[in-house]
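Quick one, T. Sequence first:
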Amino acid sequence: MPGQSDPLPASTSANAMKYSKRFRVEPGSKVKLADIDAGFKDRHEDRESAQSELEQNSRRLAELQYLMYAEDQRSLLIVLQAMDAGGKDGVVNHVISAMNPQGCAVHAFKAPSAEELAHDYLWRIHRVTPAKGQVTIFNRSHYEDVLVVRVHDLVPKKVWSKRYDEINDFEQFLTENGTHVVKFFLHIDAEEQLARFKQRLDDPGRHWKISESDYSERAYWDQYQAAFEDVLEKCSTEHAPWYVIPANHKWFRNLAVSQILVETLDSLGMKMPPARVDIAAMRAKYHAAEALEEGGAAADGADASSAEREAESQHGKKAKKHKDKKKS
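C-alpha cells:
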C-alpha cells in the first residue's frame, strides 16, 4: 500500500458525541426499533455542517487502515445489515471507499448457491473472513440465516433458534484469532424506505436497483423488525457489538459509521512495526547506489562534452578547408 500523509488527531472532535457508546447495543439489552428515531442527526442540521467531520474521519480511516496493513497482526470484519434500501451500498461507497482497496474486500451475500447449501450455513462465511492486515465488509451476512429463514419459515424454529449461540461462538472464535468484528444495523423507517423506492423509480440511473422483492418483502416489515430485534438482543456481545445507526439521513449514517470505525480502530493502539532489515546497512547501500548513479551521470556528461568539442573541431576544419579551396 502507498505511504500515508502526516498523522491526524486520534479523535474527531473534543465535543463530539461518542457514537461508539451512543449507538452500541449493550449485551442482553432489549431493543425496540420503533422507539429509536431513525431520523436522528445529533447536533448537525445538514450534510454541510457535518462535512468537515466526515472528511476528517475519512483521512483518519485511511491512516488507521494503513497501520493495520503494515502491522499485519490483526484484521477487521465490518458487518452491514438493513432493510431493503437501508443504505448498505451507500456505506460501502461513501465510508469504506476512504480505505485503500489493496487492503479491503467486500462480499455481498445473496441466496445461497447449490454448493453453499451442501455445506453448513457458516461455511460460505468463514471462507471469506479477512486475513491478517485486511479489512473485509459483509453486505448482508451470516445473520440472513436467522432473518430471512425465520421470516419465510425456510427452516424449522428449532433449527434457526440455535443459530444465535452458534453465531456468537463463531464470532468469538474470529476474535480470539485476531479479527475484530463490528456490526451495523442501518435503521430506516417504513416511510423512508418507500421514499427511496420512489427515488429508484424516478431516476433511470437507479432502475437497476429495483427488484420484484422490494414490495413483496416490504409486506413482512413487522416480522423483519421483530427478527432484527432478536438478533440485536441475542448477538450483541463485548467481542462483537451491534450498533443501531439512525439512517434516514444518509450523510448522518455515514458520519456515525465512520466515527465508530475510527473510535474502534483507535482503541486498538496499533503502531508502525519496526523495520525488518538493518536500516544503517540499507542507507549505506543507498548512498553507494546514489554515488554510482551520480558518477555515471558525470561520465555521461563528460563524454557528451567531448563529443560536442570534437564535432565543433571537425566543423571548423571543414570550414577552413572549404575556404582554402575557394582561394585557390
